[in-house]
Amino acid sequence: MLARVAVTPSPTPGPVPPAVITGSAQAFPPVVSQLDLWDGYFGPLLGGDRWARRVFLHAGVERRHCVIDPRYEDVSGWSTAARMRRYADEGAALAKAAVAGALDDAGVGADRVGLLAVASCTGYAAPGIDVRLAGDLGFGPGTQRLLVGHMGCHAAIPALGAVADHARARGSVAVLLCLELTSLHLQADLGRPGERPGAVDLDQLVSHALFGDAAAAVVVEPAGAALAGPGRLRLVDVAACSDPATAGLMTWELTDAGFRMTLSRQVPDVLARHVAGLVDLLCQRNGRDREEIAGWAVHPGGPRVLDVVADRLGLPAEALADSRGVLAEHGNCSSATILVVLDRLTRDRCLRAGQAVVALAFGPGLTLYAALLEATA
Fold it and tell me: What is the model's pTM?
């Protein structure tokens, strides 16, 4: 049984200074359907186990994008070093496309960027993707660089807070890139073919059923009247809540054979205990009521995660349509996912100036992060 502990969200001296998301773009590798992945690789690996098939095909994912399609290239026996070399090769082109697209969307030249932040938990290199981007896109020699590493699915929100702080404090343009290539970390020991469900590693099965690859980027500029416009969001505040007593429920371990995930079925239960309190804290300290939030960008960690969030926040089914749509079309792309959901939400909905959006993401710790944003027009 999980220990019940009282968790107080981290206090802050005041709201994060406002800055505006002025550009957004994503880049994806080739797409593959969930059914084709099962029929062509995971099904044969697990001996056609009907229980595993049901879990795999009911993960809320219809298709996703993968730099490694295991039907044609099985990396499950690769070393971590080999996977990291592939990360550098595959990630560079996706990163360049996403950042170039975001800069173009914002109408900002690369030479104006004062900070480039890269969030990733699926690959490392030094010099890293940030250095390759600087050379390929023409960032100035004085552009500062920041790596937000191994935070997992919630990394985009604290990273967004960091680039927003830079934009406001320095009066400078900042760029955030989230690059995740989860398909590189295919594990060989999902189960023993032909045996019953107890022989299948459920944590591994679920993670391999959910995760896809993506690069997502946003441009953040200091707030100002000239930056008002449709689809643009002002970052108002960021809040966090961690429950260290449940840290073992979600882990991302570096091994000699890639990175290995633990994703317990108890994670939604922990989120259920904390999500309403975190959202209410964020709203109250910024003079908002939960009921007046016009848009919800919730990290789609899986169907049950979304169900729990909707239940605890009292949201109608359509409130999380963007999150469910991203899960179905792209899978869970770790840190990049929340930026994809935000982009979809702002492009699909006509938000009026001042209307609020809450972004929520969850990751190892067990940690919840929330951001309050407002439409500029």
Answer: 0.92
